[in-house]
Design a protein that fits this description.
This is Protein phosphatase 1 regulatory subunit 14B. GO terms for molecular function: protein serine/threonine phosphatase inhibitor activity. Belongs to the PP1 inhibitor family. It holds the Pfam family PP1_inhibitor. With 128 residues, the protein is mostly helical. The protein is elongated. The protein contains 5 helices and 2 strands. It starts with a strand and ends in a 12-residue tail after the last helix. Helix 4 crosses helix 5.
């Protein structure tokens, strides 16, 4: 039912809607579905990746001595590093990425290599 206020009580008419008696509306509760990402990949491996990414960001903010937003645009691709046959090649690749960093990067690189050791590559699984 709509109720219109009179012009005496309000300068402009307003309309208010009321639920008719005898009907109850319950808000729809969305059904929580598992996200596509966690279906495709192992949740534990995703957690490891997230922790590694947060660690990398923390380390880069210290290396570049700035806030996260001010870190130079660089991408450390963990899957690319995991594809490399040796730690020497991985270290060289990361060192190339950090070429404009003026602080020593050896501790960061060795820490990164330790953290990715044993990680799995996140490749899209084949459909069954």
């Amino acid at each position: 039912m709509a109720a219109v206020t009179s012009p005496e009580t309000s300068p402009q008419p307003r309309v208010y809607f009321q639920t008719p008696a005898g009907t109850t509306e319950e808000p729809e509760t969305p059904v929580r579905k598992q996200g596509r990402v966690t279906v495709k990949y192992d949740r534990k491996e995703l957690r490891k990746r997230l922790n590694l990414e947060e660690w990398i960001i923390d380390q880069l903010t210290e290396l570049y001595d700035c806030e996260e937003e001010a870190i130079p645009e660089l991408e450390i691709d963990v899957d690319e590093l995991l594809d490399m046959p040796s730690d020497v090649e991985r270290a060289a690749r990361v060192k190339d990425l950090l070429v404009d960093c003026f602080k020593p990067t050896d501790d960061f690189i060795s820490g990164l290599l330790d953290k990715i050791r044993g990680m799995q590559k996140l490749s899209t699984p084949q459909k069954k």
